[in-house]
Amino acid sequence: MTSTPIETDGGTLVASSKNVSAPSLRVDGVTAAELDARGVYAWFGDRLVLEDVNLVMERTKVTALIGPSGCGKSTFLRILNRMHEIVPSASLAGAVDLDGENVYDPSQRAATIRRHIGMVFQRPNPFPAMSVRENVLSGLRFNRIRSKFKDEIVEEALSKAGLWSEVKDRLKDPGGGLSGGQQQRLCIARALAVKPAVLLMDEPCSALDPGSTLRIEQTIQEIADEVTVVIVTHNMQQAQRVSHNTAFFLAQDGNPGFIVESGTTDQIFDHPVDPRTADYVHGRFG
Amino acid sequence: MTAIDENLRIEDELQEQPPPAPLKIPRFRPKEFKFSDALVFFLTALSAFCIVWILFAQLTLLNGALGFVLLWIPLFLLMYWFVNRQLFTRQVAVDRLIGAIVSLGAGIMMLPLVLLTVFVFQRGLATFSWHALTSTQQGVVYTSKTNNIGGVAHALVGTLEQVAIASILGIPAAILTAVFINEVGGRFTKSVRTVVTAMSGTPAIVAGVFIYSVWVTRFSYSGFAGALALAVILLPTVTRGTEEVLKVVHNDLREASIALAAPEWRTVWSVVLPTARSGLITSMLLGVAVSIGETAPLIMTIFGNQVMNTNPFSQPQMALSLLSYKQIKLPIQSQIDLGYTSALVLFILVFTVFILARLLGGNWKRSSGGRRSVLSFVRWTPGSALEPIENSEKGMSEDDFNSHRD
């Protein structure tokens, strides 16, 4: 087993990750990975929305992306797991390395990348036609991963998402019947069940109440030692609470977004170098 | 970290508190259309009726049902507005007036349907019997004195076989087309959609002529040729219905599926189609119901037959719609009676499919869940007279698709 999360064998996943046999969430050979965005530009049509973004998202650390609305945080996040390209008018430049391998290398399949880099969206979106259990296992099903330990995978993923105790008697109920906060944790469990190396979260708590937000923040901290987390948030306190590193994005007067400053969360919030960062984290604009 | 734990603990404790004991408080529903409101409605309608009657029968020499109704409705609306103004306020009166107008519109739309149903049942039931359902026209001699009108069994078998074949051919193709237009896309999306729209506007007789020239002239009249023509009708209907249903599936779900590394076909098969399941069934069955009732495409393809032919692949067949069409034009009463019997069976068959569509579509349970009167339109909703009160009459159960919305 290599430690490289992207294992390609003629364009398909190698057998080891196809036949998941261990009840553990971790698969041998797949560990939390480091993401390194190098010189990323993004366009929608002819409009440049991101300009020369360079950011290292460290292994087993939580990286928060902060900044005002419309500064390209979500676009950047979607570039990391190749979700940007499903928008018909979208194009990009630059490279994203997942443990040293460029996810935009022509030999990489987008689906393989997305299996290793999971995503949680702003609005909870469990599949309404599936039960809670089926939702958790949907990623395995989509990737034709067979396992004898489905019950264990469901329990472990839901436990990690902090939802197991609430839904263990309702696994057969439709996923859409849960409350908003529970739905979002179900989406986290669904993303974790395929054992990603990186988990991207696009404002995962913006539609949720404070109690659910707290539970999700707790989940983020629990999973951070196994999976690299990148989280977009508008909530300064949340960024401070959950993240180790922070990157501050800004787009001014219709210009494309860029990173003003990045570093450890303590440094960004307590000793920002750039005055614009200081203004933003102290709530003076944005 | 510890702060989060502490907060979670507090929240857990809050959740564990026992629910408060139920209190006996007089309850009311602000939007409820109460018995007294219904009474006002009916009594006003009755008063208006009486006034018009006095005007027509006692004071003047006017007569005629149309004039009566044309006078009755405006008078009722005026009185209804006035009564509500006296009982409540001007705003309530306006709201209820508009509600009553909308209800009347719905009622007027229902009228032809009710009349049609009554007519078909009246004419059809007179000669309807188990014998008529299970026998054919084989050996029946129609005279002015005959009581034996024969039966529709051959036509029923023909219709069922033709529609079944048409469905097998048309529905998968229609769903694939809709999936192509809505999910796959690409350069040909627009042209395919245009073709489907043009097809749905094609006169049914043209479908019959088409199949006649490419199939019947080469082989022979058969139920299968009829099924081909019906499939031409069914295809655009189901495609457009399915497309509408797929559009309602929220894009969030497709993105979620893609983010879980699902291939495109997986996203369609495991996420989009199951999410749209109830709407899909509805659109399929509506397509089937439409093709059951089609006559024009069958005239030149199945030809018609008086005896039982269970083989749809050779020899002419009969269909219920074609049997009605042929019999009702004939001179002898018993022949015409068979036409109406056939129409009744056809009506029941189509109605069954519609009911099935509602049941399987999953909308039926929900809309019958709450008690709802025919007059629910007339309910007073504070400050929002023109706002639709309920969307219970949506064809598709949008709730299913939007249930993930919080």
Overall description:
- The complex is a heterodimer of chains A (286) and B (406).
- With 286 residues, chain A is of the alpha/beta class.
- Chain A has a single domain, classed as P-loop containing nucleotide triphosphate hydrolases (Rossmann fold, 3-Layer(aba) Sandwich), CATH 3.40.50.
- Chain A is 33% helix and 24% strand.
- In chain A, the strands form three sheets. Chain A has a six-stranded mixed β-sheet, sandwiched between helices.
- In chain A, a hairpin with a 2-residue loop joins strand 1 and strand 2.
- Chain A is globular and about 50 Å long.
- The N and C termini of chain A lie far apart (47 Å).
- Chain B is mainly alpha-helical and 406 residues long.
- Chain B folds into two domains: 35-125, no CATH class; 153-378, MetI-like fold (Orthogonal Bundle), CATH 1.10.3720.10.
- In chain B, 69% of the residues lie in helices and 0% in strands.
- Chain B has 17 helices and no strands.
- Chain B has helices at 2-16, 35-59, 65-87, 90-125, 130-134, 153-184, 189-200, 204-216, 223-248, 251-259, 264-275, 277-293, 296-299, 320-328, 333-361, 363-369, 398-402.
- In chain B, helix 6 runs antiparallel to helix 7 (189-200), helix 12 (277-293) runs antiparallel to helix 15 and helix 14 (320-328) packs antiparallel against helix 15 (333-361).
- Mean pLDDT of chain B is 82; it is low at 363-406.
- The interface between A and B is large, with 42 and 31 residues.
